[in-house]
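Throughout our pipeline, every protein is held as a single compact record rather than as scattered files. This encoding replaces a full spatial description with a residue-level series of whole-number codes. The remainder of this section carries one protein's record, kept here as part of the documentation.
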Amino acid sequence: MTATTVEAADVQEHIPGESEWQIVWRRLRRKKLAMISLVLVVLIYGGGLLAPLIAPYSYQEINLERGLEGPSGDHWLGTDRLGRDILSRTLYSARTTVIVTTAVVLSGSMLIGNSIGLLAGYRGGWVDTALMRLGDIFSSLPGLVMLILINATLGQRVESWVRWVEDHTFLTGLVASGFSSYLLVFGALSLFFWVGSARLIRAQVLQLRENDFILAAESTGATPFRVIRSHLLPNVSFLIILGISATLGGIAGSEIVLTWFGVGVQPPAASFGQMLSDGSATRTFQAHPHLLLVPGAVVTMLLFAFNLLGDALNDAIRGR
């Protein structure tokens, strides 16, 4: 296909009155792998969100008399060493992934990363230099090692603080629900997942701030906040979506690895990392392969779907 043909096809696909997001969605729907990946993500995340309603058992329900059973009518995916239903724990582990990824995206990627990128790119000068050097410091640190150290050293302090909140407020059940683990994990991940999005947004803003519409807004007396909110932010919204899609898989994988090392989400909360750790021993896998295969299959599908969906979304935004 020649360049002229490609340009003509690109013009023909624009329907009058159709927004840019509608165009991107139409392009994305044409990609079968993207749709399959989207369905997988929705199913896994939907199962996590609806876990309290659809899980056949509680993820904490122990029945030592039925430990290490294979799939059966009572337990479709079998049970673990403590007799806990694996299907239920899988659904609640998906809920943990939903909570952590959503919190990290909202706090680290969207709030911190995009705000720093917009501010550094627009203000320039010493503000840009200071913020980007801060990003260089975080990006130069060994991410996984630092996450393990942060979670290992601050775990007891965060739990003590959560207990203090329970004792001095009307909030109850925070420690029992694993809230302290969630708070520590997404807090630590947020420290390292803002750098990439900040650099991406900054690079685009450096180009946009020299355009005529920015200069016109400034000449009419628009404040820096208004310029960023009303003129720059809408023009980098596609990059924000791309950044989110690119980091979701990494965030989910980091949480799972941290828990697998024993410094992530702690019991009684359910996590794929803990399930993988319980079933990863050689003898355990040989005798009871379902302990590893079930969480391993779900994690593999989720991370693979994130990667495929991110690539497809990138192509759709770029008009491919």
